[in-house]
Amino acid sequence: MALALGGYFSSGSNVFTTSLITVQSWFSSRFVALQDFLTAPRDIASLRQRNSELEGEVSELQAQVIQLQQQAGLTETLAALVDFAQARPENRYEAAAVIGRDPSPFLQYVIINRGSNSGILRGMPVVTNQGLVGRVDAVIADAARIQLITDPASNVNVRLQNAEVDASLVGSLTGDVTLQLVPQDISVQPGDLVLTSGLGGGYPPDLIVGQVVNVRTRDFDLFQQASVQPVVDFTRLQIVLVIVNFKPVDISPLIPAP
Amino acid sequence: MRNLIAVPVIILSVIMQSSIVSRVTLLSGIADLPLVMLAAWALQDDVETAWHWAVATGALVGFVSGISWLVPLVSYLFVVGLAQMLQQRVWRAPLLAMFTVTFLGTIGLSICSLVVLRFAGVSLPVPDIFGLLTLPGILLNMLLAIPVFAVMRDLARWVHPVPEVE
Fold first, then answer.
1. Does a structural domain hold residue B66?
2. Which of A130, A139, A180, B2 could cysteine-pair with B159, CB 3.0–4.6 Å?
3. Do A103 and B65 touch (CB under 8 A)?
4. 3-state DSSP helix/strand/coil percent for chain A, to nearest 5?
5. B10 vs chain A: nearest CA distance in angstroms?
6. CA-nearest residue of chain A to B23?
């Protein structure tokens, strides 16, 4: 005891404890390895089950995220439409979803899910919060067909905001719209805003239609032509507003027959 | 009784045409699912109701579309007539006949549309129609032709089962 307390056995005890720890570490590591080996299949099975559960949850959450993103997009669109409607309290609107397009590639029409049961009549103008879309061409009880302003047979009386001149906007096969019947002495610049004029009674005045992109002026032509970029993206039409308190004027009886 | 399958099939094809197919454009051309379906149906053996299908489909497309009802009706009757002529008299290779009917049917539909729109006062440039609508439409219809033909062949076998030989 006295020798031990005096530190004479310290080197011997160090050797002993080091050997003991080494042996214990060896046994411990082997035991853990054996334990892992014996319990691993059960863990893998449970992990796989847990993994599949988590993958299922991730899939559900991803589906929810997509659904919420769609709802958020729809809400944004609806909010913009509500803002648009509130900014023009003189008009009454009926919102409708676009549910289809015309089966013929020759025509630019869309089909909406509101019809005469919602007070929609033939000839009523159709807009979005961005601007003019077209007008109602045919109606049944719960659906209507809209002729877009890009349709080859569409003809909208418009005016240039800066020049204060009336013109005619016609569609085409490709969906491009062209400004026609612009007098030669009028200066038309790219970027000029095109609005409905209200002439002819087919559309209410001052609805935004688009912007002039480029102008074609030729000396031997009677009128200038201009390409117009519509403000509405017709390839992504989802929800539209029908102005249900606008009564179009049918001036066809006043037009002399050729 | 199994011939009544025509009702849901025709309605479904027109709905799909309006809601899905007409949104998939190549240049400005789109495929015509009812036309391809009618061509495939008329080319099947033992099918005797193709003319009825053509009238019903033409009437329904004419109802949905802004174009005159004459265009789909006449075009689809032309497609069925062409298909039956090829199937009965000339061709025995069904897929080749399918492509031929689809090709000529699409051109016929374009010409018919052009004529009717001209009479309606809508002037359209013919080169644009050919380059932007008809050619892309033919290509898209050709792409649809094979799967639609397979589906309609299975449908025809279900409607007109072949009696087993003992």
1. yes
2. B2
3. yes
4. 35, 30, 35
5. 14
6. A101
Total residues found in chain B within this entry:
166
Instruction: Output phi, psi for A138, to 5 deg.
Output: -150, 150
B70–A contact, CB cutoff 8 A = no
Q: What is the CATH number of the domain that holds A132?
A: 2.40.10.340
User: Using CA atoms, how far apart are residues B152 and B46, in angstroms rounded to an integer?
Assistant: 13
Looking at the domain assignment, is residue A214 inside a domain?
yes
A100 and A33 in one domain?
no
| B13 is a domain residue | yes
B113 in a domain, yes or no? yes
Task: Please state the ipTM of this predicted complex.
Answer: 0.87
pLDDT in tens, chain A (258 residues): 666 667 677 777 778 778 878 888 887 888 788 877 777 666 777 888 889 999 999 999 999 999 999 888 888 878 887 777 777 777 888 989 999 999 999 999 999 999 999 999 998 999 988 889 999 999 998 999 999 999 998 889 998 887 778 889 999 888 889 988 888 888 888 888 899 988 888 888 888 899 999 888 887 888 888 899 999 988 888 889 999 888 887 777 777 766
Sign of torsion over alpha carbons A39, A42, A48, A50: negative
Query: If you count them, how many residues does chain A have?
Result: 258
Query: Between chain A and chain B, how many beta carbons pairs sit less than 8 Å apart?
Result: 77
Q: Residue A209: give its domain's CATH number.
A: 2.40.10.350
For residue A246, give both structure tokens: 């606008």
Among the candidates A99, A116, A148, a domain finishes at: A148
For residue A77, being part of any structural domain is answered with: yes
Q: Which of A98, A101, A146 to substitute to test the interface with B, most B CBs within 10 Å? A: A101
